[in-house]
Amino acid sequence: MKTPSNHRSLKLLILAAMALTVSMVLVACGGGSGIDEGASNEDVPTAEGGEASGKVTISNWPLYVDPGKDGSIAEYQEKSGIETKYIEDVNDNNEFFGKVQPLFSQGDAGGRSIIVVTDWMAEKMWNLGYIQKLDHDELTTVFDNLTDDLQSPAFDPEREFSVPWQSGMTGLVVREDLAPDIKSVNDLFDPKYKGKVTMLTELRDTVPLVMAGDGVDPNESTPEDWTAAIDKLQKAVDDGQIRRFTGNDYVQDLAKGTVVGAIGWSGDAVQAQIDNPNINYVQPTQGCSIWSDNMLIPVGAPNTAAAYDFMNFVYEPEVQADITEWVNYVSPVKGVKEILEKRDPAIANNKLIFPTPEFTADCFDQPSIPGDEAQQKEIEQQFQDMLAG
Question: Which domain holds residue 35?
Answer without folding.
Answer: 4-167+293-348
